[in-house]
């Protein structure tokens, strides 16, 4: 039977402490024990169902984790205070001094900076490769490699990873395949395609209201238990814990994700199609011209479309900046980083979210100055949005 992520979320049943339709929020940082022995056992990890201290876990965080695990089809999940809190904890848990990571070179700038500048302090080295070239990925693997890291759909270039093929490579070389699925929730289910660990920044589409940061790690019970281990678990010891109030609010937003993703995808498809026909250099996985269009199609849960992210290249940073300022003035969206909001958000990644990547490397990976990344909103009338965007482009001589 086909994997149905939204059904999996809907099929969960919650009863609040007083019979409420939403689970009660656990508003405590610490928990009492009826016996000292149970407290000791809980520290040792042997007292299932007991809560110890909120950095370890809380009922609210477990509810949200359960829903996200259901969405990705993994045994369980652990929520974190941010997407970076998830990424850094996973990599620090899987790698130690002397280990090596093979990573896609087109990834979120913060992840890139962490791997390029931070982990070498712990003698963890990373080789950055073109993830769409499987020979290059395999050639970069050494006896020290522990992790293969990529984004399903990459930030900002929208390259698509062949998760099934990468999973085969990972298994062959005994590596863990870690996939950041932030750009394609519901559309792609990496664990179903063989990923060992799936990460999201909940800050983006999943929460969808640009009012909080959050993250999640979806994986096996064994790995999540390792992360929470009081003696050597990266989530427990690095402390990127989500607050219970936030977990409760994200859980409520998650329930409308399937409807929002459909609308984001519908609107992005419409705009990408029109922009391309107008002669703009447009990148969107839903376009037949995208080099990995067929691959995305072969991996996707069709109902949710090709996602809300697209890029256009308007030729220069000056033009990109002028267009973004004008579009904001016309209330077509906000000149802001991040993604997954009800309004369209746009930014020039070369000078913002990917500025951690040195200019030379940006050039090599095809990240040009005139590139604008759009996170397309939930506009009710996308034809009107298109007409207004086109007027802005005409006013600035980007389109004739
Ligand atoms: N992964 C991707 C693909 C992102 O775009 C981002 C943030 O922009 C992150 C991870 C980091 O998430 P957070 O900002 O929640 O720490």
TrEMBL record:
Residue positions where N6-(pyridoxal phosphate)lysine is found in the record: 204
The entry's keywords: Lyase, Pyridoxal phosphate
CDD domains named among the record's database cross-references: CGS_like
Lyase listed as a keyword: yes
Entry's Gene Ontology BP terms: transsulfuration
GO MF: carbon-sulfur lyase activity; pyridoxal phosphate binding
GO cellular component assignments: cytoplasm
Cofactors named for this entry: pyridoxal 5'-phosphate
InterPro entries referenced in this protein's UniProt entry, alphabetically: Cys/Met-Metab_PyrdxlP-dep_enz, PyrdxlP-dep_Trfase, PyrdxlP-dep_Trfase_major, PyrdxlP-dep_Trfase_small
Similarity field: Belongs to the trans-sulfuration enzymes family.
Protein name as annotated: Methionine-gamma-lyase
Organism: Gelidibacter algens
């Amino acid at each position: 039977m086909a994997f149905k992520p939204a059904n999996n979320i809907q099929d969960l049943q919650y009863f609040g402490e007083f019979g409420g339709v939403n689970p009660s929020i656990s508003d405590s940082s610490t928990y009492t024990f009826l016996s000292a022995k149970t407290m000791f056992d809980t520290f040792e990890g042997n007292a299932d169902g007991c809560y110890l201290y909120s950095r370890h876990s809380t009922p609210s965080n477990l509810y949200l984790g359960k829903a996200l695990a259901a969405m990705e089809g993994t045994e369980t999940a652990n929520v974190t205070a941010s997407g970076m809190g998830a990424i850094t904890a996973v990599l620090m848990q899987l790698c130690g001094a002397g280990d090596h990571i093979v990573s896609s070179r087109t990834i979120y700038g913060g992840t890139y900076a962490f791997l390029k500048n931070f982990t070498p302090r712990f003698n963890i080295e990373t080789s950055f490769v073109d993830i769409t070239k499987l020979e290059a990925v395999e050639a970069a693997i050494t006896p020290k490699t522990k992790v293969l890291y990529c984004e399903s759909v990459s930030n900002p270039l929208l390259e698509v990873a062949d998760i099934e093929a990468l999973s085969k490579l990972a298994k062959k070389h005994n590596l863990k395949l870690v996939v950041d699925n932030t750009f394609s929730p519901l559309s792609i289910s990496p664990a179903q395609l063989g990923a060992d660990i799936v990460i999201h920044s909940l800050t983006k589409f999943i929460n969808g209201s640009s009012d909080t940061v959050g993250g999640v790690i979806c994986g096996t019970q064994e790995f999540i238990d390792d992360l929470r281990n009081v003696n050597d678990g990266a989530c427990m010891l690095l402390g990127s814990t989500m607050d219970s109030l936030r977990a409760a609010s994200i859980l409520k937003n998650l329930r409308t994700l399937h409807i929002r993703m459909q609308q984001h995808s519908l609107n992005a498809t419409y705009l990408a199609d029109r922009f391309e026909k107008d002669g703009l250099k447009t990148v969107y996985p839903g376009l037949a011209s995208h080099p990995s269009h067929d691959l995305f199609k072969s991996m996707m849960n069709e109902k949710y479309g090709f996602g809300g992210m697209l890029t256009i290249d308007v030729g220069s940073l000056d033009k990109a900046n002028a267009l973004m300022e004008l579009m904001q003035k016309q209330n077509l969206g906000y000149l802001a980083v991040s993604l997954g909001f009800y309004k369209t958000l746009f930014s020039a990644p070369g000078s913002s979210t990917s500025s951690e990547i040195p200019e030379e490397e940006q050039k090599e990976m095809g990240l040009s100055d005139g590139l604008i990344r759009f996170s397309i909103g939930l506009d009710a009338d996308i034809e009107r949005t298109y007409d207004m965007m086109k007027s802005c482009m005409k006013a600035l001589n980007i389109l004739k």
